[in-house]
Amino acid sequence: MTTQQLFEQIKKKQSFLCIGLDVDMSKIPAHLLGEQDPIFSFNKAIIDATHDLAVSYKPNIAFYEAYGIKGWESLKKTIDYINTNYPELYTIADAKRGDIGNTASMYAKAFFEDMSFDSVTVAPYMGKDSVEPFLAFEDKHTILLALTSNQGAFDFQTQLVGTKPMYQVVLEKSQTYANAENLMYVVGATKAEYFKEIRAIVPNNFLLVPGVGAQGGNLQDVCKYGLNDQVGLLINSSRGIIYASSGSDFKEKAREQALLLQREMSEILKGRL
Amino acid sequence: MTTQQLFEQIKKKQSFLCIGLDVDMSKIPAHLLGEQDPIFSFNKAIIDATHDLAVSYKPNIAFYEAYGIKGWESLKKTIDYINTNYPELYTIADAKRGDIGNTASMYAKAFFEDMSFDSVTVAPYMGKDSVEPFLAFEDKHTILLALTSNQGAFDFQTQLVGTKPMYQVVLEKSQTYANAENLMYVVGATKAEYFKEIRAIVPNNFLLVPGVGAQGGNLQDVCKYGLNDQVGLLINSSRGIIYASSGSDFKEKAREQALLLQREMSEILKGRL
To answer: Lyase: is it a keyword of this entry (chains A, B) (predicted)?
Structure first.
């Protein structure tokens, strides 16, 4: 999917909501556990109940890997279900991969070709030749970790390299990579005050923003500094939506939570688009 | 496996060789392509032919992921084959994962429990809480990326934070993590001159060293500065061994290449153990 197609969808739905599918067997409603593939059944129900309110879905790959081959089957069924039934939705493989060139190409092949995701999250530590194999895919996005929403972000990402924190060095250097127009960045919502500086370095790139909700970030604060004239934000919420209820009403409660966020987004977008 | 058990195996075999299983369908001997699971058949043949010369095997997870569910099946069969037939071998999931705490726990579960690997490679960019969930597993190792062997290593890893390159900051900080005795580090062989400084910071940890062979690193140079009194090195070779021949003699040629390295290692260890 192109950035323009994503933007068109955002305008149509008045939403820049991404729903994170971090699906843990110990947290899904008990009545689903008897199904043949409980994780896929759960995902299907959540997607069906919220697809008109969200523009993007982001399976967190670790949660599928943890169940081995069965987990990968659930993941494949989920992405196939989205691509078949809701092709307008933008899909993100939250995989945080990163390795040398020939290995990075294999990861890109896994997520872009075998799984047909629109984008994949990638870690920057190994530098240019670990990122460019992902960027080489046309109409796909590479979402590079810049500033994450966890406490450990202060260990290395905010360390000063000269006068600049490392995450700003990552933003600047990555803008020189081949096909940098295919880049998006992960920027955690728990640090809204950083968005102003980040937008000065990457005014045009989309930012994937985790940490609204369960991790304590505030939507208004993020939008104040993060929005650009193509919106330029995908706000992710995972647990706050998918685990809104652990009962048989989990679909309805997930929709309620998604609707609250979509309405807030619609208000924020008023007069801007 | 404990570090002591790994050391015992190194002494017994007079080898600190790790064989990387970066198995690409386009590179394995054509006569295997008709088999039911060509990747597993290839791995099994390589392991059977070299298990007495190497102490460790390192599947590069990307190469399995790229083939989707079938690839994960090949990977699972490979690790099960090693654990059943050669339980003394030390296994490394070269996955370079890294994510926030609850997600990192899921990755740890995938590789340590579902797959029963002895260790997994992890990226440091997201900091302490992305690494500690791996370190929490008893008798397992977390192999943290410090200085990698690719050109992109100079993008961020060697950038100065104050007076120290980032990879040294990663080494120092990670030594303060809970269960830091379960840490090993990835240090690329293409930069042998760095080993002296690295050993000053982490005298006791094992270092996993890719880049000998195909990537141009030299074994003697690495050992000169990298060896410690428990050897403390695992030298990885992938393509130089597993693709030594693309014909029906691939097993014999792989053994020849492994034997060359093992003999060189045996010479280096003389008088040291």
So the answer is: yes
What's the CA angle centered on A29, arms A27 and A35, to 5 degrees? 110
| Tens of pLDDT, residues B212-257 | 865 566 899 899 999 999 999 999 999 999 999 999 999 999 999 9
CB contact under 8 A, A68 and B166: no
- Site of tokens 């989205």: A82
Nearest CB to A127 within list B101, B131, B150: B150
B159 contacts on A by Cβ (under 8 Å): 161, 166, 169
Burial (0-12, 13-18, 19+ Cβ within 10 Å), A81: middle
Rounded CA gap, A32 and A29, in Å? 6
Q: What are phi and psi of A95, to 5 degrees?
A: -115, -25
C-alpha distances out from residue B37 to A200, B67, B76, Å: 51, 12, 12
Interface contact A136, partner B, CB < 8 A: no
Phi, psi of A210 (to 5 degrees): -85, 165
The residue count of chain B comes to 273
* Cβ-defined contact of A153 to B126 (cutoff 8 Å): yes
Q: Is CATH 3.40.50.720 what the domain over A3-269 is classified as, yes or no?
A: no
Give the separation between CA B113 and CA B138, rounded to whole angstroms: 12
Question: Can you name the CATH fold of B3-268?
Answer: TIM Barrel (3.20.20)
- The domain locations on chain A are 3-269
Our CA-based measurement puts residue B115 at a distance from the nearest CA of chain A, in whole angstroms, of 8
Query: Is the separation of the CB atoms in A56 and A261 below 8 Å?
Result: no
Among positive and negative, which fits the CA dihedral A202, A203, A206, A209? positive
Distance from CA of B81 to the nearest CA of A (A): 16
Calculate the CA A210 to chain-centre distance.
7
Cα–Cα–Cα angle for A47, A52, A56, nearest 5°? Answer: 60
pLDDT digits (tens, 9 = 90+) for B47-100: 999 999 999 999 999 999 999 999 999 999 999 999 999 999 999 999 999 999
Measure in Å the smallest separation between the Cα of A63 and chain B Cα atoms: 6
